[in-house]
Amino acid sequence: MSALFQRNLHASLPNVVKGEGNYLIDETGKRYLDACGGAAVSCLGHDCAPVIAAIKEQVDKLCFAHTGFFSNEPSEKLASWLVDHAPRGTGAGGVMFLGSGSEAMEAALKLVRQYHLENGEPERCKVIARKPSYHGNTLGALATGYHETRRAPYDPLLRETHYIDVPYRYRMMREGETEAEFAARLAQQLEDKILELGAKNVMAFVLEPVVGATLGCVTSPKAYFKTIREICDKHGVLMVADEVMCGMGRTGTTYALEQEDIAADITTLAKGLGAGYQPIAAVLAAQKIMSVISQGSGKLWNGHTYMSHAVVAAAALAVQEYIKSENLHDNIRVRGQQLEKCLHNAFSEHPHVGDIRGRGLFWSIELVEDKASKKPYAATQEIAMKIGAAALEIGMMCYPTQGCADGIDGDHVLLAPSYTSTEDEIATIVAVLERAVSAVIGG
Q: What is the band of 401 on the pLDDT scale with cuts at 50, 70, 90?
C-alpha cells in the first residue's frame, strides 16, 4: 500500500510524470487529454512557459516572508491587477491571498462577520445560501454549501445555514413560466427568507454565479442577479460571490458576475487564478468593506501563515497576464460556442441526456433514466462515474459527479477544457465523451 493517503485507498492510480500542452502523460507513456482541468483548474494546460519562467525567477529572488512583518511585490501587483479588473461597482477594493477555495470561503465568512461588527451591527450572524451548492470542504465552507452526500458525515459539526433554491431551469421552471417570471419567483425566495429570519440578523447571502460541481454549469435567468443585488442592498445583507470555479475567465470574462452587470461585496477566487501552477485562492473585498474596516480597527482579524506567498502570487500574476496578452477570452468564447454546438449535435437527441447547459468553456450534460419524466438514475448505479472511467480509459479526463436531481440521485458530466484549447481538441473532447456515454448507457 502506498504511504500516500490517497482519495481512494483501494484504487490503483496511474502515476503522471509530465504535462504537455493540454495533455497529461503517465509513466507508461499514455496520454490523457485534460477536458476538465482536473476540477476546472488547469486553464492554461500543463506547460505554459511564461508562467513557469515567472515561478523560477521569483524563486531566485524570494520564496517566503511572513506577512506579519513584510509585504512583497508579486502580491501587491496581483492584488492591484484583480482590483483594476474587478466588476464595475467594486471600487477601490482590497484582496487577500490564501491557499485554496475552501480557505477563501472561510476567510470571506469571517470578513463578513468582522464588517458587521465594525459597522455596529453585532446581531448579524445568519447566513443564507442556495441549494444545491458547494463552497468548499472546510467546516465553515461545507456548512455554507448544500451537497447532501458531502455534508452527511460531518453534519453534527456544521453551523446552521439557511437556504433558498438555485434557479435550476431544467428541474424548477414551471410549464408556461417565462424567464422573467422564473427569475422573479426565485429571487423572491431571498427576500422571504431574510424577512423570516429578521433582516437585522442576516449577515450574508452566498452564491455561485454559475453553479459548478453540484449542478453542473447552471446559469441563472436574466434579471435574477440584479434583483438579488437590490434585495441585499435593501436589507443591509452582504452579497458573497463564490467564483472559485466559474471565475477568472472560465465563462468568458475575468469575473463571472461581469456578465450580470453587478458587483458582489465579497468575491472568492481560486482555480483559474493560478491555473494549477501554484496553489492560490483570493478574497476580493469591495471598497465599502475596506472603508468600514479602515475607519474601524484598521486590521484584518483573520490571518494565515502562507498568505500572500511571493512565489504563488508571481505565478498567478503571470497566468492572468498571459490570458490577457494572448486574448484568451476571445478563444474561450469562440471555442465555447463550438463546444456548445458539438454537444448539442452529439447529445440533443440522446434518449438519456436530459439537459445540456453551460457558458464559455464550462459545460455539462445531465444524464437521466427517462427523458420524458426527467427521472434520474439512482446514485447506486454510478452512471456518471462509469462514464468518467470509460473516458479515462480512452484517454480523456472529464469531471463526473452525482446528486444534481435531489442531492443524492442525478448524474452529470462536467467539461472545463483549457482556455488554449484548439478547434481539433474541442472536437476530440465531444467525440470521446460520446463514445464513453455510448459505452455505459448506449445511444
A: very high
Question: 149 pLDDT band (50/70/90 cuts)?
Answer: confident
Backbone CA torsion sign across 74, 76, 82, 84: negative
Q: Is the pLDDT score of 280 beyond 90?
A: yes
Over its C-alpha atoms, the chain yields an Rg (Å, rounded) of 21
Q: Which residues contact 247 (CB under 8 A, 6 or more apart)?
A: 209, 254, 255, 256, 267, 269, 271, 272, 273
Cell of 434: 460520446
Answer CATH for 16-34+327-441 from 3.90.1150.10, 3.10.330.20, 3.40.640.10, 3.50.50.60: 3.90.1150.10
CB contact at 8 A, 284 and 90 = yes
* Region at 217 (left for phi over 0; alpha for psi -120 to 50; beta for the rest): left
Which has the closest alpha carbon to 90: 76, 80, 75, 103? 80
pLDDT of residue 11: 87
| Exposure b/e, 30-53, CB count within 10 A at least 16 = b | eebbbbbbebbbbbbbbebeebee
Domain ranges for the chain, please list them. 16-34+327-441, 53-325
Res 148: pLDDT: 86
Contacts 24+ apart (CB under 8 A), 115-122: 115/238, 115/289, 115/292, 115/293, 116/203, 116/238, 118/292, 118/293, 118/296, 118/297, 119/292, 119/296, 121/200, 121/236
By DSSP bridging, strand 126-131 and strand 31-34 are unpaired
Is the pTM of the predicted complex or chain greater than 0.90? yes
Name which CATH class applies to 53-325.
alpha beta
